[in-house]
Amino acid sequence: MRQTRITDRTPPPRLWPRLHSNAHLGFPATGVGVRRALEKLHRILDGFHLRSCNVEIAELVLAEVLNNIAKHAFAGGPSGIVRLTLCLQGRWLIFTVIDHGRPLPGQKLPRGAEPRIGPEREQLPEGGFGWFLIRHLSDNLCYRRQGNMNLLELRIPLVSQGDCLTGEP
Amino acid sequence: MAGTEMQIDIKKHAGTTVVRLGESRLDAAIAVQFKERFRELTEGDKNRVVLDLGPVGFMDSSGLGAVVAIYKHLGRERVFDLAGLSPPVSRVLTLTRMDSVFNIYPDTDAALADDRMGNAANAHH
Fold first, then answer.
1. What is each CA distance from B2 to A88, B16, B43, in whole angstroms?
2. B47, B71, B41, B66: which is closest to B56 by C-alpha?
3. d(CA B4, CA A120)
4. Is residue B13's pLDDT more than 70?
5. CATH T-level topology, domain B8-113
6. Which CATH number fits the domain that encloses residue A131?
7. Nearest CA of chain A to the CA of B61: how many Å?
8. Chain B residues with CB inside 8 Å of A121's CB?
């Protein structure tokens, strides 16, 4: 992937890093492109010496965001490039995601309501988890359509003493 | 992934079929293929099915959707349990409350030791 570059792989100090650490990734908005980008993101985050659950949660949130772009923003047309910027700032991982695909429906973020789990096997939901997970695990979620560009920003709070299973800080 | 055969294998025990997914990721890239292979492997008998996700270190919502889809596809008579969930996989089930739908065992041995064939209704806990 020629577009991919990592500008800073220097690990920050242990515990809560005070320094800004940045990384930029560019990759095709396809299933394979997203998977490779997530694997790369995982390695970059490992280099930040965070607790493993913080890396896992960030990877999950970004997987949902990026797969959504690959699946919907470029559906039925030629694939484009997604640009991802990561910034480790204090107790947050801040992500900016830019693509030139179609806008989100209504140019609004989906509500991401919690899927309803009933007792009937036949009625269980097979989808609708993505935006719920994104909203549940991130804050300061912000979407803008600017010209022909989608710009999404989100912040993932790093779990310290909190519940590592559910990502509650 | 395109061009590579998905790692999935099946072991039949008395009354129980164990399907083990040997992939490190159950994600959007393999969800459809996984559903198809699982259906092929579990067709043709009434065995309880244990899905062992031991090697899987990452699952996204597409992967979860695939697990729900295969569970539904088995039909209400078939018992279906999960085993060997890593913390990232467990987390997705917990956050979406899908952990309340499935019986989850630490590993295949624990699942086989708990023979639930007498409990074919697969009651929710």
1. 33, 31, 25
2. B66
3. 36
4. yes
5. Transcription Regulator spoIIAA (3.30.750)
6. 3.30.565.10
7. 6
8. 71-72, 76, 122
- As a dihedral over the C-alpha atoms of residue B107, residue B36, residue A129, residue B102, rounded to 10 degrees, the angle is -30
CA distance A42 to chain B (A): 11
- B95 vs A136: CB contact, 8 Å cut-off? yes
At residue B15, the pLDDT reads: 93
- On whether residue A38 sits in a domain, the answer given is yes
Residue of A nearest to B94 (CA): A166
Chain A contact for B6, CB < 8 A?
no
**Which residue out of B27, B59, B60 would a mutagenesis test of the A interface target, given it has the greatest number of A Cβ atoms within 10 Å?**
B60
Q: Which domain holds residue A39?
A: 21-157
Distance of CA B45 to the CA centre of its chain: 17
Residue A67 maps to a domain: yes
Task: List chain B domain ranges.
Answer: 8-113
B73 touches chain A (CB under 8 A): no
A16 located within any domain: no
Residue A142 lies in a domain: yes
Alpha carbon separation from A49 to A5, A13, A14, A54, A158 (Å, rounded): 20, 8, 6, 10, 12
Prediction ipTM score: 0.89
Q: What is the pLDDT of residues A67-91, one digit of tens each?
A: 999 999 998 888 899 999 999 998 9
Tell me the β-bridge partners of B58. Answer: B25
Number of folded domains that form chain A: 1
Q: Is B91 on the interface with A (CB under 8 A)?
A: yes
